[in-house]
Automatic annotation (TrEMBL):
Domain Protein kinase: 10-267
EC number(s) from the headed UniProt entry: 2.7.11.1
Organism listed in the record: Nocardioides lianchengensis
Protein name: non-specific serine/threonine protein kinase
Top-level class of the enzyme under EC nomenclature: transferase
CDD domains according to UniProt: STKc_PknB_like
Keyword terms: ATP-binding, Kinase, Nucleotide-binding, Serine/threonine-protein kinase, Transferase
SMART domains given in the database record: S_TKc
InterPro entries named among the record's database cross-references: Kinase-like_dom_sf (IPR011009), Prot_kinase_dom (IPR000719), Protein_kinase_ATP_BS (IPR017441), Ser/Thr_kinase_AS (IPR008271)
GO molecular function: ATP binding; protein serine/threonine kinase activity
Length: 326
């Protein structure tokens, strides 16, 4: 459906995205003079009470997830029996706009983008939520952040999860990024999102998808080519990415923090002086600043103070001896 031109103080601008389940519109807040996005459930799904509830549950989860790297929900409502929610507008599009065959991104930028996405996913995982459909189209970009762009995790796909839970045949996820266990829909946990984020990182670093978008490749569960054979990357990057893409969840990184940490070290390389990884981005996984090295006070002032004390004592002793001889 087409949402009305006005929703309270919000004024409709244009449709900015559409899918089988929902349409997203750009609205202007006339009071605050700022842009927001409004996501409305598609008419055919709005008639199903179970899907409506899942749609609103997505809004509740996004509202509860307190992170700078997850879209924020500001309000929910209903128009002509169609539910909608008001959320963050991503003015820079999505990571899909950065992907092009044969055109890898600089490794420093990829690390920054993947770190931010991992931060958002980590918060969801702490809430017990598995995204299930992490892909460039669901990783939004908004102005801001240290690099001028902020990644926002969006579209939890709860309506698609509802379809699978109802016993319908549609698989939840996108074959080019989804983990093999999502085909059966059993044993899905946070490691499915680790797999998907690894596939996103693989594509950004090499300019090629880790897998083609076919279900057959998921069922045969083979690893993609080593990234270092496709782009100018260190062999250590192969280990970090291919472990994230392991067909068996037990062989993957256990969580996004482990994966992002390994990728950071692989891309940065060891510091020849310390043997530890030299960071090429100012972010940490959870957005906390890296602690500065402890300040070591200079020894110079202490040296001069001791010298003055020693000389003063020597002078006093000499003066006393002179007076005694007199």
């Amino acid at each position: 459906m087409s949402l009305p031109e006005r929703l309270g103080r919000l004024e409709r601008v244009e449709a900015i995205g559409a899918g089988g389940f929902a349409t997203v519109w750009l609205y202007r807040d006339t009071e605050l003079q700022s842009d927001v996005a409004v996501k409305a459930l598609a008419d055919n799904w709005a008639r199903r009470l179970d899907v409506r509830e899942r749609f609103l549950e997505e809004a509740r989860i996004l509202r509860r997830a307190d992170s700078d790297h997850i879209v924020r929900v500001y309000d929910v409502g209903e128009v002509d029996a169609t539910p909608y929610f008001v959320m963050t507008y991503a003015d820079l599009g999505t990571l899909a706009g950065l992907t092009a065959p044969g055109r890898p991104l600089p490794s420093g930028r990829v690390l920054d983008l993947v770190t931010q996405a991992g931060a958002g996913l980590g918060v969801l995982h702490e809430l017990g939520i598995v995204h299930r459909d992490v892909k460039p189209q669901n990783l939004l970009l908004r102005s801001g952040g240290s690099g001028g762009e902020r990644v926002l995790v969006a579209d939890l796909g709860v309506a698609k999860a509802m379809l699978h839970a109802s016993g319908l045949t549609q698989v939840v996820g996108t074959p080019a990024y989804m983990a093999p266990e999502q085909v059966s829909g059993t044993g899905i946990d946070r490691r499915a999102d680790v797999h998907a984020l690894g596939a996103v990182a693989y594509q950004l670093l090499t300019g090629q998808q880790a897998r083609t978008a076919t279900m057959h490749e998921l069922l045969t569960a083979t690893l993609p080519p080593a990234p270092s054979t496709l782009a100018d990357l260190a062999p250590a990057v192969d280990e970090a990415l291919l472990r994230a893409l392991e067909p068996d969840p037990a062989d993957r990184w256990p969580d996004v923090a482990s994966f992002v940490g390994a990728l950071r070290e692989a891309l940065a390389g060891p510091d020849p002086d310390t043997g530890s990884a030299t960071l090429i981005t100012s972010r940490t996984l959870l957005g906390e600043p890296v602690a500065p090295a402890p300040h070591r006070p200079s020894l110079t002032p202490l040296f001069w103070l001791l010298l003055v004390v020693v000389l003063g004592a020597a002078f006093a002793a000499s003066y006393a001896a002179t007076n005694a001889l007199s």
